[in-house]
Structure to design on (157 residues):
């Protein structure tokens, strides 16, 4: 009886650990040439960027330094946009979705280097400390509404 209970607890623990590992994965899909799953280890192999942002939170102003990968760099690492039409960088939206289904949408033109060149960052560190999950940081935003926490999916539409 105890052996069965112990085996069941081990199985539950392994399943929970597996689910926890998956929760920190990121899916990049949609209109990219090679949809891809990213882990923290994958992202840290890409060139890191650092941004300092200040934004108005609910009751005060927040300033923090974030480290991560430019969202445009992730799209390029997935083979780029799956659209070879004229002005393709201007014709798509990017939906960034969190674990709780909160999402924000921005345009590819806003972050494309040849157009808006906004350094939208998929962060994995804040003030030199690891974040528990990925976070979108949009430098220059007055309020932090597009600074999405717990990101699980980025879809190019």
């Amino acid at each position: 009886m105890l052996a069965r209970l112990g085996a069941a607890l081990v199985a539950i623990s392994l399943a929970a650990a597996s689910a926890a590992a998956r929760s920190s994965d990121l899916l990049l899909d949609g209109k990219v040439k090679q949809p891809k799953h990213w882990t923290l280890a994958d992202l840290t192999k890409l060139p890191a960027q650092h941004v300092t942002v200040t934004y108005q939170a609910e009751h005060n102003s927040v300033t923090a330094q974030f480290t991560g990968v430019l969202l445009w760099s992730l799209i390029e690492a997935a083979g780029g946009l799956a659209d070879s039409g004229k002005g393709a960088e201007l014709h798509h939206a990017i939906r960034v979705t969190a674990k709780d289904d909160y999402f924000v949408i921005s345009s590819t033109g806003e972050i494309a280097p040849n157009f808006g060149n906004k350094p939208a960052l998929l962060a994995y560190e804040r003030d030199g400390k690891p974040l528990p999950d990925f976070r979108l940081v949009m430098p220059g935003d007055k309020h932090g509404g597009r600074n999405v926490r717990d990101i699980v999916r980025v879809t190019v539409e």
